[in-house]
Amino acid sequence: KTEVIIGKLRLKNPVLVASGTFGYGDELIGTVDISKLGGIVTKSLTLKPKIGNPPPRIAETPCGMLNSIGLANIGVDKFINEKLPILKNYDTAIIVNIAAKRVEDYCEIIRRLENAEGVSAYEINISCPNVKEGGLEFGTNPSMTAKIVSETRKLTDKTLIIKLTPNVTRISEFAKICKDEGADAVSLINTIVGMAIDIRTRKPKVATVTGGLSGPAIKPIALAKVFEVFQNVDIPIIGIGGITTWEDAIEFMIAGARAIQVGTANFIDPNASLQIISGIIRYCEENKIQDVNDIVGSIILE
Ligand code: DHB
C-alpha cells in the first residue's frame, strides 16, 4: 500500500514534485506520465502576474543550485483559466502554492481558487528568500506566521500546508505555531540563503547578490530539520531538500516525513520522481513492508 493521507488530501503515493521545479505541471505532460505522481506542487502563484527578478537568476554550485527567480508567475486568474482545466484531466493531486506580500492577498488568492475546480490542497509559501516584501520576513516572524495560518484557515476546508524556511534558529517553533493555528501539515525545508561570486568579473553570480540554495548541498540540513519537527510537534511533515534518489526519500520518511517533494533533481531528470516512486515500492517489497506509512518516523535511536 502506497497511499498517504494528509488532512483531507489523499495521495496515491508519497512523492510530490516541489514548487518552482515543475512549472504548473502542464509543460511536462509530454515528458513525464504525471498521473503516476503523488502530486504536483505548482510554481508559486501571486494575485497579479509577476515578471520576477532581473537576470542572471540561476547559478550552479558544486553540489547545488542557487536561484533568485523572484516569484515570476502568471498570476492566479490565468492559472485558473488556462492551467487548471488541463490539469483536471490527470489523476494526480494538484497542490497550489501561494505567495503574497500581504495577508489579505493570500486570502484573496484562496477565495478565487475555492471557486475553481481541480485544486486538491494549498501550500502557503512564507519563505521565499528572494523578494523584498512577503518573503522571509513572514516566515521568520512568529506572529506573522500565526496570522497567515489563522486567516487562510478560515477560508478553506481543503488541506492547508505551510512551507517553512530553514533560515531560523528553531524551525520546530514555527511548526508548532502552524499546528496551533489549524494547519494540516508543514512542508520543509525551503531554500537556504546562499551566495556565489564569479572571480573573473568579481560579480555575484545572481543579480540579487544572494539567492536560495537547493539540491544535494542542503540534504543533511533538511533531514535534521525534518527530524527536529518530528520530535517536537505532532503535525504531518512533508520533507523537502536535495532529494535526488529513492534512498534519499526513504531517509526523510524514516526521519518522520509522511510525504516528500523532489525539487532540484527535476532539472537533471524530469522523471526523477517516477524513479523514486519505483525505488520506494521495491524497498517496501524487499523489506516486507506492507504499508509505506510504516516507514514514517521509524528511526531507531539507541
Ligand atoms: C524563489 C522562491 C522560493 O520560495 C525559493 O525558495 C527560492 C526562490 C523565487 O521565486 O525567487
From TrEMBL:
Coiled-coil annotated residue ranges, if any: none
One Pfam family this sequence matches: DHO_dh
Residues spanning the membrane: none
Main enzyme class: oxidoreductase
Family membership: Belongs to the dihydroorotate dehydrogenase family. Type 1 subfamily.
Domain of life: Bacteria
Cofactor: FMN
Residues given in the record as FMN binding sites: 19, 43-44, 97, 125, 163, 189, 215, 241-242, 263-264
Chain's role: Catalyzes the conversion of dihydroorotate to orotate.
Domain Dihydroorotate dehydrogenase catalytic residues, every copy: 6-281
Residues that bind substrate: 43, 67-71, 125, 190-191
HAMAP family named among the record's database cross-references: DHO_dh_type1
Pathway of action: Pyrimidine metabolism; UMP biosynthesis via de novo pathway
Active-site residues (renumbered): 128 (nucleophile)
Main location: cytoplasm
The protein's Enzyme Commission number: 1.3.-.-
Keywords: Cytoplasm, Flavoprotein, FMN, Oxidoreductase, Pyrimidine biosynthesis
Reactions it catalyzes: (S)-dihydroorotate + A = orotate + AH2
Name of this chain's protein: Dihydroorotate dehydrogenase
GO biological process: 'de novo' pyrimidine nucleobase biosynthetic process; 'de novo' UMP biosynthetic process
Cofactor comment: Binds 1 FMN per subunit.
Keyword GTP-binding: no
GO CC annotations, alphabetized: cytoplasm
